[in-house]
Design goal:
The complex is a heterotrimer.
Chain A lengths: L16 H10 L4 E2 L5 H10 L22 E5 L7 H10 L5 E5 H6 L20 E3 L6 H16 L14 E3 L4
Parallel strand pairs in A: 1-2, 2-3, 3-4, 4-5
Chain B lengths: L8 E5 L11 E7 L2 E8 L7 H4 L5 H9 L6 H16 L5 H29 L4 H21 L8 E2 L2 E2 L7 H23 L3 H7 L7 H6 L5 H4 L7 H4 L20 H25 L17 H6 L1 H13 L6 E8 L4 E8 L7 E5 L1 H6 L2 H5 L4 H11 L3 H5 L1
Chain C lengths: L8 H11 L4 E7 L2 E6 L4 H10 L7 E9 L7 E9 L4 E8 L6 E3 L8 H12 L2 E3 L31
Parallel strand pairs in C: 2-5, 6-7
Antiparallel strand pairs in C: 1-2, 3-4, 4-5
The chains are: A alpha/beta, B mainly alpha, C alpha/beta.
Chain lengths: 173, 392, 161
């Protein structure tokens, strides 16, 4: 009440354009459905009733990357899959973000083999790394919230790619 | 009616697709809406787990088996432990065998729940997913209770299980077992007699018993065609020989029958869980095999010989006699097999992981020929594949 | 259900000695299971016999696994694990892959399950299966060079890849 009392008689509010746009972007980050391996199961758990990622704005997982804002790479990326990952990332419209979920997406996980890409950041720029094998749903939610903080700190005056270094969320965070 | 190649339309499904249950790519040739051919292109999750095994000791490799069928990790661990125990000549204690049954059946229910939720999601019904995951979370809590991990537990160990269960575990299992029958009834009330579900699954994706055996199908995909084959009865392992349970079979070998088989399997798993919870024998949970298994920490601190053995096994690894073994367990998708060859060293020289989903997926084209494109989605769901097991 | 019978090796060898003399080189045992060592030239006949013979009916090919013995001659062997669902038998067939050709006859005409299993063996080990309807890579991209499960192929891959 105190916030709006006596301020909006003429139904006009002023604030920075950035704040309004970022508010819309941060609270409706729609992930692209990109579960690859075991982490995908924890990602599905994060969207179901107990952890409910939807309350943070990830209302729907879009099958098409053209309708998505964030790519949660959940699982191991192999060399065979890598071009497809890149193509999906390229198909996402700006501003777009990447969360590397789990040990495999972060650095190849326990699979130091001929077929596994040792970290998805060799293919796409990553904003948040979530460690764990698989990370708990709480960790993924934390990643999401930190991503929202990032988005709210962006400005339309500059290119969407954030100049800040990516954040790592440890398994014990 | 013959159709020339020029009239066929080739479409690509996946590897990023909501209904392929992972990174599966299908190259489908269509004559209007009917599937003429459907060729799976796999390998998008090939992580060379079988080759990794050649560089690790038997104990070190155990956590990798979790990542094969990651929906029912315990069963994969169990198969590996059984293969290793046969090579080493170790017999797990009775309590461990019963606990293995209990945890395997919990894993089976968990896997069938995710199968049910995602299968129905593909067919357009969103509600069952949330209902199934409600119970699935309870099972995850049970696993978290005993080992701290919600999935990929590595709890089954060579010689038994990692630790005895906590005092709170069995009461929680009984709680779950008391309310789960109501949950199954709830799913069935939504699905089994639903006219849309029946129209989409009855007579769809039929495979005859003879072809199913020839394709090497196993698990509910085989039993849906009327073949009463289950490794828990055919070559009883762990404590299954002491327990009562039925093997449900279907009749027509269509998607609907495979659904019915899995629903009944959940009930039978619950039956097994109840029996184990009532009759869990007392005793140790890890075999006493000082040549191959590390002694307990208590022994380590008390006994010089135990300390030496502990260090030796940790640094060099335990060496089984030279030989080979093919050990198989009844996984949630079918026969999970481990063919392990030892040359007497601490690491195996060859591990072949038989993933039931890999073998079952080969029958997809057979089941999908002549069906509509929409049926293809139902058929993939009914085979119940997990790509970790297909690509290994 | 009929209890599983694993120790049928001697009976089977006797039967095969009558019907297909010279096909079975050796019978070995390990961890309670029997393995028949079969000559590659006789593989198809033995497989056909095992599947069709009414008293054996090994209709289920459970597993097909190449083994790379590296320093042995011949280097590779392929192990087939068979089941008879009717009688609940289990047996393993072992065949040495001739070093010159690195090829065995394909068994896709006998067990459809052999189709993908043989493709996997070809992809990862380089063992060819003559008569296979579609012998191409299954796990790795089509343009991959080398057969990674061979023991002289490094786990972390070759730099050239």
């Amino acid at each position: 009440m105190g916030l709006i009392d006596g301020r909006f008689e003429k139904n006009v509010a002023t604030d920075a354009v950035d704040t309004v746009i970022n508010l819309g972007r941060a609270y409706s980050l729609w992930p692209v459905a990109y579960g690859l391996a075991c982490c995908a199961i924890e990602m599905i758990h994060t969207t179901t009733a107990r952890w409910d990622l939807a309350r943070f704005g990830a209302e729907v997982f879009r099958p098409s990357p053209r309708q998505a804002d964030v790519m949660i790479v959940a699982g191991t990326v192999t060399h065979k899959m890598a071009p497809i990952l890149r193509r999906l990332y390229d198909q996402m419209p700006e501003p777009k973000f990447v969360i590397a979920m789990g040990g495999c997406a972060t650095a190849g996980g326990p699979f130091r083999t001929y077929s596994v890409v040792q970290g998805v950041d060799t293919i796409v720029p990553v904003d948040i790394y979530v460690e764990g094998c698989p990370p708990r749903p709480e960790n993924l939610i934390r990643a999401f919230i930190l991503l929202q903080e990032r988005v709210k700190a962006m400005t339309i005056a500059k290119s969407p790619r954030s100049a800040e270094p990516p954040i790592r969320i440890g398994a014990s965070a | 009616m013959s159709v020339t190649d020029a009239q066929l339309m080739t479409i690509n499904i996946g590897p990023q697709h909501p209904s392929t249950h992972g990174v599966l790519r299908l190259i489908v040739q269509l004559d209007a809406e009917k599937v003429v051919s459907c060729t799976p292109d796999i390998g998008y999750l090939h992580r060379a787990i079988g080759k990794i095994a050649e560089g690790l000791t038997y104990e070190q490799f155990l956590p990798y088996t979790d990542r094969l069928d990651y929906l029912a990790s315990f069963i994969n661990n169990h198969g590996w432990c059984m293969a290793s125990e046969k090579l080493f000549g170790i017999e797990p204690p009775r309590r461990a065998e019963y606990l293995r049954v209990l945890l395997s059946e919990l894993a089976r229910i968990e896997s069938h729940l995710i199968w049910l939720g995602t299968h129905l999601l593909d067919l357009g019904a969103i509600t069952p997913l949330f209902y199934c995951f409600r119970e699935k979370e309870m099972i995850r809590d049970l696993f978290e209770e005993i080992c701290g991990a919600r999935m990929t537990h590595a709890f089954c160990r060579i010689g038994g299980v990692r630790d005895d269960v906590t005092p709170a575990f069995l009461p929680k299992v009984r709680e779950f077992a008391a309310l789960f029958p109501k949950a199954i009834r709830e799913y069935e009330s939504l699905i089994t007699n639903n006219p849309i579900f029946r129209a989409r699954t009855r007579g769809v994706g039929v495979i005859s018993a003879e072809k199913a055996i020839d394709y090497g199908l196993s698990g509910p995909s085989l039993r849906g065609s009327g073949v009463k084959w289950d490794l828990r009865k055919a070559e009883p392992y762990a404590a299954y020989a002491d327990l009562d349970f039925e093997i449900p079979v279907g009749e027509r070998g269509d998607v609907y029958d495979r659904y019915l088989v899995r629903m009944e399997e959940m009930r039978q798993s619950l039956r097994l869980i109840n029996q184990v919870a009532e009759n869990l024998p007392a005793g140790p949970v890890l075999a006493d095999a000082p040549q191959f298994l590390r002694p307990s920490k208590a022994e380590f601190h008390r006994n010089m010989q135990a300390m030496i053995r502990y260090f030796h096994i940790t640094i060099h690894g335990a060496c089984p006699p030279a030989g080979e073994v093919y050990a198989a367990v009844e996984g949630t998708k079918g026969e999970v097999g481990y063919y392990v060859v030892s040359d007497g060293g601490p690491k195996p020289i060859r591990v072949q992981l038989r993933g039931p989903s890999f073998v079952n997926l080969a029958a997809l084209e057979e089941m999908a020929k002549g069906q509509y494109l929409a049926d293809l989605v139902a058929i993939i769901g009914s085979i119940d594949i997990v790509l970790g097991e297909v690509d290994r | 259900m009929i209890p599983v019978q694993r120790d049928i090796g001697a009976l089977l060898v006797g039967d095969l000695a009558e019907r297909l003399p010279g096909a079975v080189r050796q019978l070995t045992h390990s961890c309670g299971e029997c393995s028949l060592h079969v000559e590659p030239a006789h593989l198809t006949q033995v497989a056909r016999f095992l599947k069709d013979e009414p008293s054996w009916r090994f209709t289920f090919l459970a597993n097909l696994s190449p083994v790379d013995w590296l320093s042995r001659t011949p280097r590779f062997e392929v192990v087939y694990h068979l089941r008879s669902l009717e009688f609940n038998y289990r047996i393993a067939l072992k065949v040495d892959v001739p070093d010159q050709t690195l090829s065995l006859p394909s068994l896709t005409g006998i067990w459809r399950a052999a189709n993908w299993l043989e493709r996997e063996a070809y992809d990862l080990f380089g063992v060819r299966f003559a008569g296979h309807p579609d012998l191409r890579r299954i796990m790795l991209p089509d343009d991959w060079e080398g057969h990674p499960y061979r023991r002289d192929y490094p786990l972390a891959g070759r730099a050239a890849q």
